[in-house]
Amino acid sequence: MTPDLLEQGAKRYEARIAALDAARLNTVAGGQTASYGRLVQSGEVDVTHGRILYLEDVSVSFDGFKAINKLSLDIAPGELRCIIGPNGAGKTTMMDIITGKTRPDEGTVFFGSTIDLLRHSEPEIAQLGIGRKFQKPTVFESQTVHDNLLLALNVDHSVKGTLFWRGSKAESERIDKVLETIRLTEARDRLAGSLSHGQKQWLEIGMLLMQDPKLLLLDEPFEGLAPAVVQELFTVFDRLRREVSIVIVEHNLDLVLALADRVYALERGAVFHEGPAEPLLTDLDYRKKILWL
After folding, report:
1. Which residues contact 202 (CB under 8 A, 6 or more apart)?
2. Backbone phi, then psi, for 275, in 5-degree steps?
3. What is the pLDDT of residues 260-289, one digit of tens each?
4. For site-directed labelling of 120, which of 94, 193, 210, 230 has its Cα 20 to 30 A away?
């Protein structure tokens, strides 16, 4: 990370933790002295510089086509940020790079201040606390809603671990809490294949939550949902952002305006606009690209 961006991020994060005990400031994080922040505990992501996700000058080409072109963006802890753009803008490729599915030709990708995601495999990145939901819901349709959440639980899923696993009270309570969050408590014993499209969307989000993510990447989670369900999902996301950072890829500019204070608008693999979404309303050319491409 460049010094100026680190400084900006540190100031932003300092404002977010102003209510914390002053004794927790000016500590060592990630093996390095941080001028702002708090003591990072084992298993936590070091966000003392105000960023949970950071991409700088990332590029990748496929058969001569530059899908991502010097892309730079960052996400703050507890932030809900929308990524918008027409088809081919690089949104999916960006998420592929973050989750380790695609390796960039060049650039920097960090999770917190110390975890270089380019040094980790796709399964390792998931274990680090980055959860991804694809556009089409992926659930185990022959299993119940409860068992889908149980399968997603962050425990040892080896043959031996499965044979000797005994659910604890805390794990049962966690499943109950997630069921309540995703509005599927009454459907816990139903087969996932019998759920509506919207309920499957909810269930897949619940499966991600069972893994204790620190960052959620959601690809068009509102697709196919009724307006009333969309509004419920808004409420859930607003509550979740207190515990997890959320990045939502979305085509619908009206939804973006209602959901996020700030957006990244992409075009041709680079950031076209960063900041409030309102200026995009008056950019008719960009709106046409979002609607029709």
Report:
1. 182, 183, 184, 233
2. 140, -155
3. 878 999 988 999 889 888 888 777 777 666
4. 210
